[in-house]
Amino acid sequence: MAMPQLKERTMDYVKMVEPDRVRRQVYTDEAIFAAEMARIHEQVWIYVGHESQVPRSGDYYTTRIGRQPMILVRGSDGKVNVLYNRCPHRGTMICGDMKGNTGDQFRCSYHAWTFHHDGSLKSIPMMESGYRDTRVARDNPDCSVKRAARVQSYRGFVFASLAGDGPTLKEFLGPAIVAFDDMCDRAPDGEVEIVPNCFRVIQRSNWKLFMENQLDALHPSVTHQSTGRAAHEVEKRLAKQAKKGEVPLSYHMLSAFATVTIDKWDGFQTINYPFGHSVLTGYMGLRPQDPDTRAYDKIMIKRYGKKRFEEIVGVNIHHVLVYPGLSVQSPLQQLRAVRPIGVDRTLTEIWHFRLKGAPEAIYRRSLAYYNLVNSPATMINADDLENFWKCHQGLSSDGGDWVSFHRHYGRDIVKGEVVESGPNMGTSEAPMRNQMKAWVQYMGGSGG
Ligand code: FES
Ligand SMILES: [Fe+2]
């Protein structure tokens, strides 16, 4: 009986998504959410954390992959492990804290079973007398903490997949791997270091609304207009007062939301890849010529030579989206990870990074962007959150059956598996169409 039901359900999912529009239930139906977790988030490569989060043996962070509570932990052998946060005895979470150092072992707080950093069983109190002739034995894998099926790291960014089979991390990322290359290449030492800790925001809306908003180039000059205008007013006043008309770059980070108008956003382009990933080209005019940037440029040229330096800082990327749960703004060292909690609850972790070997002022720039644009303290983030909540409320109503992704539909440039927004159509809804195309493949069982 189970099989025909499953088939029927799969058919339903496919019917809910058309190339240019999507049924509203895709965002609000609890059963669809459960299926998404099982078929997408708990299958594909999900970003767990950065190696620099856990520099010492025993350092750990807890997080989630789909519905599964997970632990990222550095082993005494230097390796990074990803484990289910679940004791094999009676199921207690091994780590109740968000982060910490567990010493040379994990010790369950309930009955003191202990485990090595790779999850393998270390000891059970009075094991010989208590478990003689039972299934509980050191060589029984059921007595160890379960590990993520696959763990791979790229330039310090750790991903895990809970499925034993599937594409490798590199195959999965495809051209979206540029997010990590671009971020690390901009560091004089060729690597980045995470800045602990992150902001955590729980959005009262479906996870896909966040993902769809990330490369929605139509919304910034509307949604964030008032914030951008206010910053622009101050920026203009300061420019008048300043001797050489120089205003701190942080004002520009906000004023750009007003000064980069829709027609300018249209000048950018989205490039959409298999598995739902996308890149938004165009950069908010950040090759400034202030003394801090010049000092950084000097260090970079010394390290890489003029030609390679120009290649590195010339990478034309504003934003990379790794579907289904990662948004990276590599030129400013920003990363947001999406952790769905329920059909109408989504946790986002908001992180930023330090370019190793770069002057402090360059880090301050990243921190400014983090605080002014991505953190929960800024009006930009609040503007977006309000939209997400209102979207989720509206989609929960009977006011309409469909969500429209028609902007510049039919005018995309298709190059095999890659779909580019058309010329001067940067505000195209091509990224959302691409995400839903991947969604159908995953939900229908033919995804990677
Ligand atoms: S539940 Fe962990 S030791 Fe008993
Ligand atoms: Fe926004």
Map the helices and strands:
Layout: H1 2-16, E1 17-18, E2 21-23, H2 25-28, H3 30-41, E3 46-50, E4 59-65, E5 68-74, E6 80-84, E7 99-101, E8 106-107, E9 114-115, E10 121-123, H4 127-131, E11 150-154, E12 157-161, H5 169-173, H6 178-185, E13 192-194, E14 199-203, H7 207-214, H8 220-223, H9 225-241, H10 249-259, H11 262-266, E15 270-272, E16 278-280, H12 291-304, H13 306-313, E17 319-322, E18 326-329, E19 334-342, E20 345-355, H14 360-374, H15 379-395, E21 402-404, E22 413-415, E23 418-420, H16 430-443
Helix pairs in contact: 9-10, 10-14, 12-13
The chain binds FE2/S2 (inorganic) cluster (FES) and fe (ii) ion.
FE2/S2 (inorganic) cluster binds next to loops.
* Helix share bin: 25-40%
| Average predicted local confidence, pLDDT | 93
Indicate the CATH class of the largest domain. Alpha Beta
Number of domains: 2
For the CA atoms, what is the radius of gyration?
24 Å
Terminal Cα separation, in Å? 27 Å
Uncertain runs: none
The CATH level-2 architecture of the largest domain is identified as: Alpha-Beta Complex
Structural class: alpha+beta
- Put simply, the count of helices is 16
The count of DSSP E runs of length 2 or more, i.e. the number of strands, is 23
- In CATH, the topology of the largest domain is named Naphthalene 1,2-dioxygenase Alpha Subunit, Chain A, domain 1
Strand content: 15-25%
Q: What is the global morphology?
A: globular
For CATH, the homologous superfamily of the largest domain is named as Naphthalene 1,2-dioxygenase Alpha Subunit, Chain A, domain 1
